[in-house]
Amino acid sequence: MARPGIAKKLVEIARKEGATAICHGATGKGNDQIRFELGIKALAPDLKIIAAWRDDKWTMDSRESEIEYCKAHGIDLPFSADQSYSRDRNLWHISHEGLELEDPANEPNYDHLLVLGVTPEKAPDEGEYVTMTFEAGVPKSVNGKEMKVSDIIRELNRLGGKHGIGIVDIVENRVAGMKSRGVYETPGGTILMEAHDQLEELVLDRATMDTKKDMGNLMAQIVYEGKWFTPLREAVQAFVESTQKYVTGTVKFKLYKGNIIKAGTTSPYSLYSESLASFTTGDLYDHHDAEGFITLFGLPLKVRAMKMAELEKQNK
């Protein structure tokens, strides 16, 4: 999600400087080359794009050769060769690729790897309760303190990192056609998503929630493929924003050794009815009503079973 923002800023600066081209250092194998270039093409189709790694004159073919080049030219790097993971960090997360992670048979060297937090084993032995509030889908406060969203993410990163939240080891399918393996630390984002999901469970109806999950998968694909500046992204985002009108309330949970444990959710727009959910028959629902519903709901299954039985009898 950072790449569209970077592409937009690159175009802004290119226009300001009167540049005729934009150069990036993404490799010819990864997703970032696609994300940068699709963003640039959408915002500035007249600008030339120079990808150094894809240039025939480019002689470096690995991170190791790049490190050697830097050493030979007196460029001090802030890491050693055994720490030369391919890393991208922003407010939301940090990703790690390379070194032992290139072989999926290897366990990640978390002592070398982690930057934003600790493993669950090294997290505190006591859990910590956290309370968040949301207004129309937007986070407003953490533990009673109102903050702008960026500061909320920073605070959740601190809390999540402390308790080993949001460490993911995945093999992904790159747009370029190959699989790659990476470890991602997203402590604050993981907490924010879980808290938001807990609130949506209360206020969104079943059909909207089902469709929103489909839209979420579609949005993930759009972002992953670098298609942020497209009408489709705008349309999907408009749907999501429409669903957030009543996502307002308070979420409480406990962080404990990599887990986010529910501790209570409330909303003035909650669709949860205790009288309906109770096993006791109430005014809004008669248990006998279920009989007719199930008869109609299951009618296609019954008709098919009857037809199969009829055909089987004919074939004997």
Structure explained in plain terms:
The chain is α+β, with helices and mostly antiparallel strands and 316 residues long. Helix content is 43%, strand content 19%. It has a 5-stranded antiparallel sheet with strand order 7-6-5-10-11, with helices on one face. It has a 4-stranded antiparallel sheet with strand order 3-4-9-8, with no helix packed on it. The chain has a two-stranded parallel sheet with strand order 1-2. Helix 1 packs across helix 2, helix 5 (149-162) crosses helix 6 (187-203) and helix 7 packs antiparallel against helix 8. It contains 11 helices and 11 strands.
The total of beta strands comes to 11
> C-alpha Rg, in Å?
26 Å
Residue share in helices? Answer: 40-55%
What structural class do the secondary elements suggest? alpha+beta
Strand content: 15-25%
Mean pLDDT: 93
Separation of the first and last Cα atoms: 62 Å
User: What is the helix/strand order?
Assistant: HEHEHEEHEEEHEEHHHEEHHH
Largest sheet: 5 strands, antiparallel
